[in-house]
């Protein structure tokens, strides 16, 4: 039932949504549709859902309508453009109709004002403040209020290691922020580190633990990333998120600080193999050119050569072979890379 309503929401025809809810009013009480309408910033659909009993604070896979509206594309590298007026008006409507900005949402869980700071969109921040969102210490740090952040830290040094309700540290909030006050964010981060903040602190994300350098790389704050490395962040643990970026400045910084190119992270997955798996050809080739070993197996016994064979990208295939990839190495099923060759690569191995 929710899938049919989701499809109507995505089609963007309010009449279809109304007809569906009239026939099946209980569908509005499922959390997924209200979160999807929030992501779409569709005020009229949210009003229809609310009329039929939807909870504007309902959570679907950790997201609430408010957080989904703010963080429409959680993994985008670049800072989003100024939001359209309709999205801002929908935010105002949610706040006016009971959406609670103090409830945690997204991954890692955070208050709406923090999520807004992580997007770097000033109108979101301004409207949330106008709508009653409180500014606690973590938001103070993410918004780059140097004076207040340092004063609070001086009065209570334990803030350097404390965590917000969702598990974020103040240093992670500084690193994740995309607000246009990078110098201030760096100053606050340095003060937190001086007070004992852990540059390797981990916080649970959707499926794995996230370190402080992950947040700096995700926000595109290279100076923050380098500060963390200089102050003790593990360069090898910083490399996976750094290598995922389109520009390689972050990965170069991790390498300068001693990152291990052949590090295997979750499920013994080599970084270069993961890049190949997800089609990040430029980054994978950079790793190979810098010395990453294409013959390190993952938990299935697949090497970067197996991955390249399965992807069907000729440029990538040639790159792993040029880096010394072993075309005869077997995986745990006894298969060599040519057994996985995509049709596009047939005949060139």
Map the helices and strands.
Elements: H1 2-11, H2 14-23, H3 31-40, H4 43-51, H5 65-70, H6 85-96, H7 112-119, H8 122-130, H9 137-142, H10 146-155, H11 170-176, H12 182-194, E1 202-204, E2 209-211, H13 212-219, H14 222-230, H15 235-243, H16 249-256, E3 264-265, E4 269-270, H17 271-277, H18 281-289, H19 304-311, H20 314-322
Antiparallel strand pairs: 1-2, 3-4
Helix pairs in contact: 1-3, 2-4, 3-4, 6-8, 7-8, 10-12, 11-12, 11-13, 13-14, 13-15, 14-16, 15-16, 17-18, 17-19, 18-20, 19-20
Strand content: under 5%
Dominant shape? flat
Mean pLDDT: 93
For the largest beta-sheet, the strand count, sense and barrel status come to: 2 strands, antiparallel
Give the tally of β-strands.
4
> What is the CATH-assigned architecture of the domain at 2-130?
Alpha Horseshoe
Q: State the low-pLDDT regions, or none.
A: none
Rounded to an integer, what's the Rg over CA atoms? Answer: 23 Å
Compute the number of helices.
20
Distance separating the two termini: 49 Å
CATH class of the domain at 2-130: Mainly Alpha
* CATH topology value of the domain at 2-130: Serine Threonine Protein Phosphatase 5, Tetratricopeptide repeat
Percent of residues in helices comes to 40-55%
Q: CATH superfamily of the domain at 2-130, please?
A: Ankyrin repeat-containing domain
Structural class: mainly alpha
Give, in spatial order, the strands making up the sheet with the most strands: 1-2
- Encode the helix/strand succession as letters: HHHHHHHHHHHHEEHHHHEEHHHH
